[in-house]
Amino acid sequence: MRKLRVAVLMGGLSSERAVSLSTGMMILESLNREKYDAMPIDAALFSGSGQRRLAVSSVEVAAITEAERKLAAIGPLRPVSDMTSSDGRVHVAFIALHGRYGEDGTVQGMLELLGIPYTGSGVLASALAMDKIVSKRLLRQVGVPMPESVDIVRRSEMRSRDIPAEVRDLGYPVMVKPNRQGSTIGMTKVKLEGELQAAIEEAFKYDSQILIEKFVAGTEITVGLLGNSNPQALPIVEIVPSKGFYDYEAKYTPGATEEIVPARISERAASRAGYLAVSVHDILGCRGMSRVDMIVRPDDEVVVLEINTIPGMTQTSLLPTAAKAAGIEFPELLDRLIELALEEE
After folding, report:
1. 29, 91, 111, 220: which has the highest count of C-beta atoms within 10 A?
2. 258 noted as active-site residue
C-alpha cells in the first residue's frame, strides 16, 4: 500500500516557536511509519539557504535551542518549498504551528493556494479564533457567555480614553492579554490599579491590540473536540495548576499542573460545557479539532474564555489527554486528524 506523504509543519516565526517544535517532534515520532512518509518542515525556512526571520520572546530562546537540538537527531528541518518539489510533493500537511503565521489563517491560506489538504480549521475560522476581540464580539452577539472586557485596538487609544477608569468600572481583578497571542505569553493577572500600566506595556510587547478582561473565578476546564461538521466532544479536563495560575510555565512544565479527567463538576455544568464547546466550534466554522477553554463559576454557570484551533500536542498538552480518556491513543488521534483533513466536504 502506498504511504501518504505528510508534511509536519512546525517551528515558524511566532513567539511560540519552541512549543511548536516540541509539538512537531512528538507528532513525527508518533506517526505510524507503515502508513506515512513524514517530512519535517520548518515554516520559518523559505528556501534551501536556511535563512530565518524569527520574532521570538527572550523567554523562549533556551527552549528553542533545546528543541532544535533534539530535532537534529531525527533529521534536518526542511524549507517550505520542499513540499512542492518534484520528488517530495506532499499529500497532506499536518499543521503543528502555534500563534501568529501558523494558527491565524496565514499558513492555511498558503496551503489553499498550493492545493495541499491540511489538518485543522480553514482560513476564516483560524483567523477569527486567533483574534480574541473579534471572536468574542461575534460569539457574545449570539448568546455565548464570555467575560466582559475593555478592548484596545490601537495604542493611540491610550491617549484618548481613560483606560484606568474603564477598568475600574469592569472591576478588579482583571486579565491583561495580547489579542492575537497564545500560550499565555504576555498575559498578566492584575489585582490592583497600580499594576495595570505595567501589565498593559507587557501585553503591547506581543501585539498592537490588547484586551483587559474581567477575571472569572471558578473551576478551569477545557473541552476538546474532534470532527468537521459533527464534532465529537471529548471528556472534560479540569486544570489545576500548582501555583494557582495557568501560565506558560504551568502549561509546559511536566508536573506543574494537575489534569483531572473527568472534571469534578456537576452533570448540569458538564452538559452545558459540552453544548457550548460544540456551538463555538460550529459558529466559527472550525474543522478537524479544537479546544474550548472555560470557567465553571461557583453558581454552576459556565463561561467561555476562548477557542484554540491548533491545540498543543506535547506530552503535557490537554487535547491528547482528553483523547486518551476517550480511549484514543496518540497515534490514533493523529490518524483521525489526517483522515478529517482529507475528508470531502
Report:
1. 111
2. no
